[in-house]
Amino acid sequence: MQNYQHFVGGQASDLPLGKVVCVGRNYAAHAKELNNPIPTEPVLFIKPSTALVKLDEPLVIPTHLGECHFEVEMSILVGWPLRHCNQETASAAIAGIGLALDLTLRDLQQELKEKGLPWEKAKSFDGACPVSGFMPITQSTNLQNQQIVLRQNHKIKQNGNTADMLTPVLALLSYISQFFTLLPGDIVLTGTPVGVGPLKLGDQLSLSLSESIHCITEVGSSER
Ligand code: ZN
Fold first, then answer.
1. How far is the CA of 138 from the centre of ligand 1 (A)?
2. Structural domain tally of the chain?
3. CATH number at residue 141
4. How far is the CA of 125 from the centre of ligand 1 (A)?
5. Is residue 207 part of a domain?
6. What distance in angstroms lies between residue 197's CA and the mean position of ligand 1's atoms?
7. How far is the CA of 191 from the centre of ligand 1 (A)?
């Protein structure tokens, strides 16, 4: 059984586990580093609830399928159902913001992309979505001015600001809700800034979202 539940403001939450809706290429500099065109509308994909694990526990990554990359992202926990919603409704439905890793089997993803196939095997494996606890948002929370930092073995690898998102959070939630109903307990990952790279067993990672969230974790073992 999966040892994960949502935490909001340091308390275990009653919200159920649900899907994770992710956006690819939401930062122009990251799209460029992978030689992808800058999209004209959000590129969406989904991770199942079985991908969720706690970010502050040692990560278990597949090591037999090529490189497994970190992508640090701001995460949004959905607290109310959203279907065909506008940005105001989306804003009222946010139960909290946090950090997540969109773990990606990059070699496998590249292979799938070249064949025009879906990315799920590269993005949606068990444990592919480590998430932090969430902080409730307040009047003073500026969703589009959050600094996202990832250090790998004490070296800064990703250091971006949500100001640089191509599709900002509320527009993204509204866009997603035109295609998929977001349910309470679902999570949205908002895209990764530039600087992604491969993980190795034993790596120490430290991640932060502005002043509100700090997480330390390590790559603990390989899945076979
Ligand atoms: Zn991502």
1. 26
2. 1
3. 3.90.850.10
4. 14
5. yes
6. 12
7. 5
- Does any domain span residue 99? yes
One-character DSSP codes across 144-203: TS-EEEEEETTEEEEEEEGGGBSS-HHHHHHHHHTTS-B-TT-EEE----S--EE--TT-
What is the whole-number distance in angstroms between the Cα of residue 166 and the centre of ligand 1? Answer: 13
Residues flanking ion ligand 1, Cβ below 5 Å: 71, 102, 192
Q: What is the pTM of this model?
A: 0.96
For ligand 1, the distance from its centroid to the CA atom of residue 73, given in whole angstroms, is: 7
Residue 107 has φ and ψ, to the nearest 5°, of -65, -45
Residue 208 is assigned to a structural domain of this protein? yes
Q: Which domain holds residue 37?
A: 7-218
Residue type, 222: S
Averaged pLDDT, groups of 10, the chain, 224 residues long? 87 97 93 88 96 95 95 98 98 98 97 95 97 95 97 98 97 98 98 96 96 94 72
